[in-house]
């Protein structure tokens, strides 16, 4: 679904959580643009906006797919605490595998900022 209402949801086709989120959005008739997170990661600007909505620099870890292979291979659990915000966001913008998914951000939907899928949280954020 494509719309002028800008809710963008980054997903990975083989991710069950992403499929549940998309199914939920469609069932609730919430318009969104879906982007493949691996091929088209969120931009640095989107990541910065998400971080601000999640609570700033202290929430940086929430943007990372900490259970992912790439996260472990890069030993980011050890490195992340010493990285600058700019370094971490550049890393995420360059590698969609590192971004926690689904990643939903919107400017036209009350500034929605959601990572991961929790039905209660998504309902509170997206349902009037």
Jot down its keywords.
Glutaredoxin; 128 residues
Could you characterize what this model shows?
The protein is 39% helix and 12% strand. The chain has 128 residues and is of the alpha+beta class. The protein has a single domain (7-126), classed as Glutaredoxin (3-Layer(aba) Sandwich), CATH 3.40.30.10. A 4-stranded mixed beta sheet has the order 2-1-3-4, sandwiched between helices. A hairpin with a 6-residue loop joins strand 3 and strand 4. The radius of gyration is 14 Å and the shape is globular. The two termini are 20 Å apart. The relative contact order is 0.23. The model has no long low-confidence stretch (mean pLDDT 91).
Helices and strands in order:
Blueprint: E1 7-11, H1 16-27, E2 33-36, H2 44-54, H3 69-73, H4 76-79, H5 85-94, E3 103-106, E4 113-115, H6 119-126
Parallel strand pairs: 1-2
Antiparallel strand pairs: 1-3, 3-4
């Amino acid at each position: 679904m494509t719309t002028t209402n800008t809710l963008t949801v980054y997903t990975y086709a083989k991710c069950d959580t992403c499929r549940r989120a998309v199914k939920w959005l469609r069932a609730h008739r919430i318009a969104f643009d879906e982007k493949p997170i691996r091929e088209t990661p969120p931009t640095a600007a989107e990541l910065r906006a998400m971080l601000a909505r999640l609570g700033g620099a202290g929430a940086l870890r929430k943007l990372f797919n900490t259970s992912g292979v790439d996260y472990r291979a890069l030993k980011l659990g050890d490195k992340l605490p010493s990285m600058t915000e700019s370094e971490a966001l550049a890393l995420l913008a360059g590698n969609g595998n590192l971004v926690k998914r689904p990643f939903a951000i919107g400017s036209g939907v009350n500034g929605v900022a959601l990572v991961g899928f929790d039905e209660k949280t998504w309902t509170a954020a997206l349902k009037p």
